């Protein structure tokens, strides 16, 4: 029996801790079990990750108790979490904590809450059988099955336009897995975990499916986790964290809509589920399928260069054509009409026609609220957030001015707080205003709005979609929430009120995001027999992202975008690490950031270090933020360098430093 147990603790301290094991516990201690340990005068949960003969400090304390009868982490999970620690600048304990359900992080053995209702009721779902595959689909499935048979790691990029039958391929590949007695994980973006998606899987595989997402109570989450761990289900469908499902015989991982940004965790550990999935597939010698109609630049680049195997699906299942897209130049609208209107004549006519034909329309604007800024006509004052460098957005229903970054809220003033005049005016538009404008223009429209304001209550998301599905509502207005996955055959019109919202975000991915959103939201039109039309309003009608989206031409977009990525040295040509320095005092923030950049440059003069520069929105919640960007081909090299530099760096009191590997926003 080795003398000491190595314990990982979920704290931002980049090391493991040694503890001795009291005689009476020595038979029960094992790697992968949780233990209670004394730590800085507290008792905390730790994870036993190894044993050693020597301790690295004097006066080693002993563990207090062992929580688990059986290890909760197996060898694979230990390897995977160690990989996360090495790649994402966090401690091993933090990586482990992210990989297990919330309840058991706190050291609970079992969760007390009685589960009255199962997570999904299989009886509620119709049964479905496999389709006979098209030629394209068969070929795609065949290459995946070959990898499964050979038990080899391989990443496939399944690039298929919307409705080309990707999901059917997932389902049939999973069927093969089950026949071989192996298991599958399917990741979908949180937002797509709608009844529509879940139904696809449950109606095919029944009670063999576990569904995990963030809306589950901790108790239900734990129950699903336990079911998976005990081998009671063979398929997991879930959001990002489902990649850590405790399966022991994994044969296939699928990531649908692989380009989605929700696969990146924005808290420590800031992992990307796609990369974790790749690592897990390697550990299991199994294939990984990445599916998308608009692959991320990174994935398509890798597929083009042979790192991934590219599978293309070019036809829609029913041979239905992609909808026609019309771009409306709002600069011309501005010139020909007297005042700025929300809807162009073209879009107004199209809505009118749609409603007269008894069809449905989706109107998309990726900004919520009513007016997006409020300003005094006399002195020019714009009402800003007290804590952030942002303007306050007027919300009509709440009758409040709200900051979208910190939720700071005030009453709309009747008179200007600065010059006391009453010339307060409201400008800009969000989804609330779009809704009210439609109401104003079309008396017979029955409108529902879907954005994070109307879906805050649980169940409201499904309720709105149901009303649209059964036709009680004929117009759906919303943010990116309505851009994805919805399949409503009666939708013949999709209107994009402004394509410029995402285009104007100061981020190297803004073109990619705009192209993706337009393609996705456009794909909601014309899924039925009556075909469909997409109308895109923009002040930048010549932008390549908008032009390519209008032609459904991913390849064209990729060719343009990849050139600028290469020129400016951004992913996929390098990996990025973003280091954000935050403090309440701007001078201190900027000074500390400069010193840190200097320290990094000093430690490795060859490393490409840009900045520091103020973040696009410099102040949020009273904290000033300055970014340093480190660029290199090898993520591990950068993380290792920062592991050396940061612990030695003298961080002034009140300054916070966050490290984000492969950031998805600037
Ligand atoms: P995607 O995931 O690419 O959007 P889906 O797999 O959802 O595409 O397929 C679109 C529609 O076509 C679904 O309703 C699906 O049931 C149906 N479908 C898929 N494959 C076939 C097939 N081989 N034969 C008939 N219908 C199919
Ligand atoms: Zn004023
Ligand atoms: Zn704010």
Report on the structure:
The chain is of the alpha/beta class and 666 residues long. The protein folds into four domains: 4-104, PriA, 3(prime) DNA-binding domain (GIY-YIG endonuclease); 122-318, 3-Layer(aba) Sandwich (Rossmann fold), CATH 3.40.50; 320-370 and 429-564, 3-Layer(aba) Sandwich (Rossmann fold), CATH 3.40.50.300; 575-661, Alpha-Beta Plaits. It contains 19 helices and 27 strands. A seven-stranded parallel β-sheet has the order 8-9-7-10-11-6-12, sandwiched between helices. Helix 7 links the parallel strand 8 and strand 9 (235-238). Helix 18 (586-603) packs across helix 19 (635-648). The longest helix is centred in the last third of the chain and has 18 residues, at 586-603. It starts with a strand and ends in a 5-residue tail after the last strand. The mean pLDDT is 91. It binds adenosine-5'-diphosphate (ADP) and zinc ion (2 copies).
What is shown here, in short?
This protein has 666 residues and is of the alpha/beta class.
In CATH terms, what is the fold-level topology of the largest domain?
Rossmann fold
Strand content: 15-25%
The helix content is: 25-40%
Strand order of the largest sheet: 8-9-7-10-11-6-12
pLDDT averaged over residues: 91
User: What profile does the largest beta sheet have?
Assistant: 7 strands, parallel
The count of β-strands is 27
Q: How many DSSP helices? A: 19
Radius of gyration, in angstroms, nearest whole number: 27 Å
- CATH top level of the largest domain is Alpha Beta
Low-confidence parts = none
Q: What gap, in angstroms, lies between the N and C termini?
A: 50 Å
Structural class: alpha/beta
CATH architecture of the largest domain: 3-Layer(aba) Sandwich
Outline: globular
Bound ligand species? adenosine-5'-diphosphate, zinc ion
CATH superfamily membership of the largest domain:
P-loop containing nucleotide triphosphate hydrolases
Number of domains: 4
């Amino acid at each position: 029996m080795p003398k000491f147990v190595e314990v990982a603790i979920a704290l931002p301290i980049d090391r493991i801790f040694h503890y001795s094991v009291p005689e009476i516990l020595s038979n029960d201690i094992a790697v992968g079990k949780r233990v209670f340990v004394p730590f800085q005068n507290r008792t905390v949960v730790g994870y036993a990750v190894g044993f050693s003969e020597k301790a690295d400090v004097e006066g080693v304390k002993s563990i207090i108790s062992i929580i688990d009868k059986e290890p909760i982490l197996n060898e694979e999970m230990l390897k995977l979490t160690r990989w996360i620690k090495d790649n994402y600048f966090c401690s091993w304990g933090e990586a482990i904590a992210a990989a297990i359900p919330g309840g058991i992080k706190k050291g609970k053995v079992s969760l007390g809450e009685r589960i009255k209702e199962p997570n999904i009721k299989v009886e509620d779902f119709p049964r479905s059988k496999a389709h006979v595959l098209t030629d394209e689909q068969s070929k795609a499935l065949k290459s995946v099955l070959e990898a499964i048979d050979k038990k080899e790691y391989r990443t496939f990029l399944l690039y298929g336009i919307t409705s080309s039958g990707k999901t059917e391929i997932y389902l049939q590949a999973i069927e093969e897995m089950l026949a071989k007695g192996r298991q599958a994980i399917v990741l979908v973006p949180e937002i797509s975990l709608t009844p529509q998606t879940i139904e696809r899987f449950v109606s095919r595989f029944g009670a063999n499916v576990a569904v995990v997402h963030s809306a589950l109570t901790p108790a239900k989450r734990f129950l699903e986790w336990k079911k998976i761990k005990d081998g009671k289900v063979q398929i997991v469908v879930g959001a990002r964290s489902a990649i850590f499902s405790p399966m022991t015989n994994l044969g296939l991982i699928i990531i649908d809509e692989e380009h989605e940004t929700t696969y990146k965790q924005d808290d420590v550990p800031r992992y990307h589920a796609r990369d974790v999935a790749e690592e897990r597939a390697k550990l299991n010698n199994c294939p990984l399928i990445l599916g998308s109609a608009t692959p991320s630049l990174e994935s398509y680049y890798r597929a083009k260069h042979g790192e991934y195997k590219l599978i293309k699906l070019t036809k829609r299942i029913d041979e239905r054509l992609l909808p026609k897209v019309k771009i409306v130049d709002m600069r011309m609208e501005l010139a020909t009409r007297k005042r700025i209107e929300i809807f162009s004549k073209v879009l107004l006519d199209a809505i009118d026609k749609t409603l007269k034909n008894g069809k449905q329309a989706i109107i998309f604007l990726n900004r919520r609220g009513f007016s997006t800024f409020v300003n005094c006509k006399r002195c020019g004052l714009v009402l800003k957030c007290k804590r952030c460098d942002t303007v306050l957005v007027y919300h009509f229903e709440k009758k409040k001015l709200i900051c979208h970054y910190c939720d700071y809220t005030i009453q709309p003033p009747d008179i200007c707080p600065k010059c006391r005049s009453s010339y307060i005016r409201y400008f800009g538009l969000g989804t609330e205003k779009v809704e009210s404008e439609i109401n104003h223009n079309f008396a017979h429209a029955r409108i529902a709005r879907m954005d994070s304001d109307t879906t805050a209550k649980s169940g409201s998301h499904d309720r709105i979609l149901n009303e649209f599905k059964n036709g009680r509502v004929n117009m759906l207005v919303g943010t990116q929430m309505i851009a994805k996955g919805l399949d409503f055959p009666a939708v013949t019109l999709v209107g994009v009120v402004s394509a410029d919202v995402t285009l104007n975000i100061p981020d190297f991915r803004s073109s990619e995001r705009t192209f993706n959103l337009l393609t996705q939201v456009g794909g909601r039109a014309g899924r039925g027999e009556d075909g469909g039309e997409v109308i895109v309003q923009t002040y930048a009608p010549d932008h390549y992202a908008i032009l390519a989206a209008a032609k459904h031409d991913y390849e064209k977009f990729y060719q343009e975008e990849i050139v600028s990525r290469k020129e400016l040295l951004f992913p996929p040509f390098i990996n990025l690490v973003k280091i954000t320095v935050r403090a309440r005092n701007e001078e201190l923030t900027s000074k500390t950031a400069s010193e840190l950049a200097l320290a990094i440059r000093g430690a490795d003069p060859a490393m490409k270090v840009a900045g520091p520069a103020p973040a696009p929105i410099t102040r949020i919640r009273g904290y000033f933020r300055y970014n340093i960007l480190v660029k290199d081909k090898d993520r591990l090299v950068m993380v290792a360098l920062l592991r050396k530099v940061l612990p030695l760096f003298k961080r002034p009191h009140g300054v916070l430093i966050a490290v984000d590997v492969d950031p998805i926003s600037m």
